[in-house]
Structures are given as C-alpha cells and as structure tokens.
Amino acid sequence: MPPASHRTPKLAPARPGRPSIVRFLPYLKGYWRQFAFSFAMAPVGVLLSISIPLLLGGVVDGPIADGDPGGVLWFGLALLAVGALDAFISFLRRWIMVKATSFIETDIRLDLFAQLQRLPMQFHKAWESGQLLSRIMSDLGTIRRFLSFGIVVLFMNSIHIVVVLGIMIATLWQVGLAVLVLVIPVVALTFALMGRFGLIARRVQDETGDVASAAEEALHGVRVIRSFGRARYVGRTFDERATRLAESGVKRMDLAAVLWTLLEVFPSVLLLVVLIGVSFGVAGGALSLGAAVTFVTLLLSLAWPVGSLGWLLSFARETATAADRVAEVFDAPLSIVTGGLALADVGGRLELRGVSYQFPDADVATLADVNLEIAPGETVALVGGTGSGKSTLVSLLPRLVDVTGGQILLDGTDIRELDLA
User: What pLDDT is attached to residue 1?
Assistant: First the structure.
C-alpha cells in the first residue's frame, strides 16, 4: 500500500452541474463486473416477479376452469420454482454487491485519510474533528449502503412499475390509463418533497458532526474542564447541539413519514380503482376470470415497489448529501505540495534566509525577515513572549505550514523541493 502522501484520489474533478455522487464513479471501475451482473439480474428479477401473476391467471383460466388437478399441481410447482429462483438471484446479487462495495468504501476512506494528511494546518484548525470523523465514517457508510443495495433496488422497482403499468394498459387500457393518471401527480409530489428532504438531511448530517466534535473535545479535555470548573458550560454547549440535532431529526422523520405514508396508501387507492375497472371488464366480457386475477395480482405486486419508493428516494437524497460532504474535503485546496527530491546523504545543516510568515486571517506578519543558521549538532533555544512566533517558526521546519516569504534550506536545498514522504 502506498504512503498517504503518495496516494492519488480517484475522485473525478468537479464540474458545473455534475453531482458529487457521480464523481465517485472511478472507484467503481475495478468492480464493474459485479455491478454489471447486479444490474443485468435486475430485469430478470422483475421478469420472475411478474411471471407469478401471469401463472396465477393461467391456472385460473386453464386447469381450474377445466377441473384438471394435475395441471393445478404443475402450475403450483412452477410457481414454487419461480419463487425459489427469484430468492436465489436476490441472495446472489446482494452477496456480490456487499463484498464489492465494502472494498470501494475502503478505497475511498484510504484516499480521504491521505487527503487529510496532505491538507495544511489551517484546514485542520478551521474544521472540527467531529465533522471530519462523521464524513470519514458515517457518510462513507451511507454511500456504501446505497451502492450495495439502494441503487439496484431503485432500478429494479422503477422497471417493475413501468412494466406492470404497460401490461395493464395493454390488457385493459381504460383501467391502465386511469392508474397512470393517478401515478403522475403522486410522482410529482414525491419529487417536491424530496427537495425539502435533502435540505433537512444535510442539516442533520452537519449537526451530527457538531455533536461528535463537542463530545470529543469534552472527553479529551475533561481534566482541564474540571480543573477550571467549566463542566456546566461544556454540558450546556453539548446539550444545545444535541437538542438542535434532535429537532432536525424529528423534522426529517416528519417529512419522511408524510412521504412514506403517501406511497404506502397509494397502492390501496389504485387497488380500489382496479377492482372497479376489472369488475366492469369481467361483467362486459372484456376480461376472463384468469385475466382479472392476473390484473389484480399485478397491482398487488406493485405494493412493495411503490411503498419502498419513498424510502429509497430519501435514501438516495441522503447519499447525495453524504457525497457532497465527502467531496468538500477532497476539494479543499492543497497549499503544501510535496517535492520530488530526496537527499541521499543528509548532513543536517539548516539555514533560514529572509523567512517571513503571515497567517491568512492576519493583517501583520508573525515572522518577518528571519535569518538563522544552525550547524549539524548545534542546539539553539528560541525565547520570546506569547505570540512572538516561536511555535510558528518551529512549524515551518517540517512544513506544517509554508513560508510566505524567504527560504528554508536543508543542506543547501529548499525544503519545498524535498519529498515529504
């Protein structure tokens, strides 16, 4: 495994209009066979699911109508075989995807950690550690779960809904068209709710990082907090952040409840419309009893695809938000770049020539025109008041920050030209 400084992120560059989740596609290239298999099996799974209502209609119009017990038995065995094959394909698809997406999550996490190692100290001072931890753990976990399960199931359910609506329209166009007319406004309302859900989901993820930061800082600094009697203040700060997170979480679940309830109740409304339409169709001779059974069973098969659509869409929105948050770290500018030189024989002579350093948010330079030579084996003490630049000067030597003026030379070579590894 290459060192952190030598790992090059596979993340695609940012472009206007390109969603962050799309930028992670290069991580999937090494596992394209697993994704190809899963997406290829999706239509097969839909075909097997739809074949069950067709077989039920066939057994009603065939063996049951003819009074053939042997035929009913064969149809029953066929239904059992179709169900078993569908379950096996579903198991195989999930097993393959879980393994592939676990490796993808690891690749992204390693690249993200390498990026954190390369980023300058100003970045780490500006970002709370809890925010970074929530991105490297929970956000990447959300992306992995969506890639392993959500995206394929969303694809399958979409195909299932379209195919079933097509069969309904082809079988009894009046009822199929009525179902289609009812579906359109529900889809429009769902996407409108998803826009609001995305904003709240982002707020929840950010506030989760705030709570993690508050907890980590309090636990790491518990001795100092108790020594100075600040336990109540720290507890109040944590309580405020936790309360904000709870309120945002409740708002997210309220919106999700509206979305899920809408999509759970909708199949029942469709069932009522279909039952009325099928009743007229059978009474008028346009449908056989077997075709009516097929029609109703097909509609019942939509209960899971339509009912899960709300959860899958909210899951997809959370994943898109997680991808945005992770991409923010990858897109952070690198002000310290490694050089390409490696000293074969390090003597240890250090020289500062006209070194200056000014913090980005400061009006005055902390260090200005510092000149210093330190011979190998020589010991130098830096003495000065608080804020005089002692720590800053020491931070310049290992390139925790880079000089804003002048040079730092190691054996006559500018340290910016040396390999950081």
Answer: 46
What is the number of residues in the chain? 421
Give the C-alpha separation, 7 to 240, whole Å: 39
78 sits in which H/E element: helix 69-118
193 within 8 A of 255, measured Cβ to Cβ: yes
Q: What DSSP assignment string belongs to 1-30?
A: ---GGGPPP-PPPP-TT--GGGGGGGGGGG
Q: Encoding tokens for residue 2?
A: 């290459």
Averaged over 295-322, what is the pLDDT?
80
**DSSP 8-state assignment for residue 418:** B
Closest listed residue to residue 231, CA positions, set 218, 244, 243, 247: 218
Structure tokens belonging to residue 216: 């980590």
Quote the CA–CA distance of 155 and 143 in Å, as a whole number: 16
- Cα 150 to chain centroid, rounded: 11
* Beta-carbon contacts of residue 183 (< 8 Å; ≥ 6 apart): 161, 165
Q: Is the pLDDT of residue 103 over 90?
A: yes
Taking residues 324-333, report their average pLDDT.
90
Q: Is the pLDDT of residue 175 over 80?
A: no
Enumerate residues 6+ apart whose C-beta is below 8 A from 327: 11, 14, 20, 23
E-assigned strand segments in 83-228 = none
Distance, in Å, from the CA atom of 323 to the CA atom of 90, rounded to the nearest integer, reads 27
State the amino acid at position 41 in one-letter form. Answer: M
| Calpha distance 117→124 (Å, rounded) | 10
Identify the three-state secondary structure at position 355.
strand
CB 122 within 8 A of CB 360: yes
